[in-house]
Specification:
By secondary structure, the chain is α+β, with helices and mostly antiparallel strands. The chain has 3 domains: 13-71; 77-172, Pleckstrin-homology domain (PH domain)/Phosphotyrosine-binding domain (PTB) (PH-domain like, Roll), CATH 2.30.29.30; 176-396, Rhomboid-like (Rhomboid-like fold). The chain has 15 helices and 7 strands. It has a 4-stranded antiparallel beta sheet, covered by helices on one side. A hairpin with a 2-residue loop joins strand 5 (102-110) and strand 6. Helix 10 (234-255) packs parallel to helix 12 and helix 12 runs parallel beside helix 14 (341-358). The N and C termini lie far apart (72 Å). 33% of the residues are buried.
Length: 400
């Protein structure tokens, strides 16, 4: 692209964002520091921590004030130049993107409305650009077309076709399997809370369905299902549902509902088996084994198709992804307490192995087409989980 193209930046929204951030962050910091809570108790008497917190916070505020004042004298615009694109941020910084590194462009949709676009940038983190960044919404369509031309020029015909097929699936497929799993986990938690009169009784409810090792070996195989959908608290439940939602964006749409569900359910089985075999804890519950199965599956999927996965599926480069994975492992083993990392390991291995086997000879356009044995496996797993979970609930409440 030889000549520069400029689109008016929504400067008013950026200024509003800075003002709202400054006021809300000041209120939040004040509440954390000047009221009695765990955070303020940790700061009490720690002068170094107080100085670092104060310096960091006021440094950020001064930078924002400087940018705000500078914006009174010039108007930043979104500029598509010959070799780079310069995009102002809501905090009046700048994001610079090399045009020859853009390889995918896709529209971001929420509630059937286009809210932005996602740029896949080779060997870099994907970048999202929302419609609100443009002063004139019509400019968004022009910018989308400009980025599409960049991506088209940077890919060969075969890769363009593969990415096109994947993007079409991202726009049309739903997350039905994820919604069903989340709903079941939430319903089981509510049944436990409503059906128990005290914390101690809820603890008995959880223990009755938990993976306790000895009970698994004793033949109580319904715990393979019940332990997955039990959670200790609302934060525990919400964290697992959040992680499930994140990985569903990267796996359920490209793999399809059958293969996504198979990864999750098989990984939970493997996690329970690992935990029952090695017994690092007296009892364990939660869907973390399945979630780590999705993490393992995504690791394999990303490694196999890294060069042609669009930004919505492949948001971070391989180096950063593996760094995050290593930090998670270190945190679980050495820092965070009461985490059944053996269960997570079993889930991760199972998820990785399943995706490795089903994608071994598959091109990226056909990875959502399960074989007949996978459909049979799906029916078997869903039926077994439904029976196991139902049996646990009926047994606990004395129906059978």
């Amino acid at each position: 692209m030889g000549s520069a193209i400029e689109y008016d930046f929504n400067l008013g929204k950026a200024r509003q964002t800075i003002v709202i951030f400054t006021i809300s962050s000041f209120i939040l910091i004040s509440l954390l520091v000047f009221t009695e809570n765990t955070f303020s108790s940790g700061l009490a008497g720690n002068r170094v921590a107080c100085l670092l917190l104060g310096a960091g916070y006021f440094g950020c505020i001064l930078l924002l004030v400087k940018r705000y004042r500078a914006s009174l004298h010039y108007r930043p615009n979104i500029r598509v130049l010959g070799s780079v694109t310069v995009i102002p941020t809501y905090y009046l910084g700048e994001k610079i993107i090399r045009n020859d590194e853009v390889f995918s462009v896709e529209k971001l949709v929420a509630n059937n409305e286009i809210v932005g676009l996602s740029l896949g940038i080779r060997n870099k983190t994907a970048y999202a650009l929302d419609v609100g960044r443009f002063a004139d919404p019509k400019d968004f369509a022009l910018a989308f077309a400009a980025f599409s031309r960049m991506a088209h020029a940077n890919m060969d015909a075969a890769s363009r076709q593969q990415i096109g097929v994947i993007l079409a699936k991202q726009q049309t497929k739903t997350l039905l399997a994820t919604y069903v799993i989340c709903l079941i986990a939430a319903v089981v938690y509510c049944i436990g809370i409503v059906g128990t009169a005290s914390d101690s009784e809820y603890m008995r409810f959880m223990y009755a369905g938990a993976n306790t090792g000895a009970t698994i070996y004793g033949g109580e195989i319904y715990r393979f299902a019940s332990s997955v959908f039990l959670h200790t608290s609302v934060p525990h439940l919400l964290l697992n549902l959040l992680m499930l939602g994140i990985f569903s964006q990267y796996l359920e749409k490209p793999l399809g509902q059958t293969r996504f569900a198979n990864v999750f359910l098989l990984a939970n089985v493997a996690g329970v088996l690992f935990s029952a075999l090695l017994r690092p804890f007296e009892a364990s519950i939660g869907a973390s084994g399945g979630i780590f199965g999705l993490w393992g599956g995504y690791t394999c999927f990303k490694n196999r198709y890294d060069g042609i996965l669009p930004g919505s599926i492949n948001p971070v480069p391989a180096g950063r992804f593996y760094l995050i994975l290593c930090l998670e492992v270190i945190a679980e083993i050495f820092i965070v307490e009461n985490v059944d990392y053996v269960n997570h390991l079993g889930g991760f291995v199972a998820g990785f192995a399943y995706i490795y086997l089903i994608t071994r000879d598959a091109d990226p356009e056909s990875v959502d087409r399960p074989a007949l044995f996978e459909k049979g496996l799906f029916v078997t797993l869903v039926s077994a989980y439904a029976l196991g979970l139902s049996y646990f609930l009926l047994l606990y409440y004395g129906v059978i």
